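Exercise 3.2. Students should predict the tertiary structure of the chain below and write it as structure tokens, then compare their answer with the key that follows.

Predict this chain's 3D structure.
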Amino acid sequence: MDDLILYTQPGCADSRHVRDWLTERGVRFSERSVVDADSARALAATGIFATPLLVRGDRHVFGFRPDALAILITPAI
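Answer key:
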């Protein structure tokens, strides 16, 4: 399974919602705050300039959209 990366920023309610949603389901992910310059550059490289963004390989989900998040975290068959 590709690693999940969650791009967040302090004070972003949707970032907190995605983090909590993933944690409640026992999903392992790396969190990268865009306050860090390297993380901000990595986020920009996706073509999306806002948070939260959950990335898995070349796929991503922007915002707190539980249905889309569920699809992204489900392993491919």
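Discussion points: The longest strand covers residues 4-8. Strands lie at 4-8, 30-33, 53-56, 59-62.
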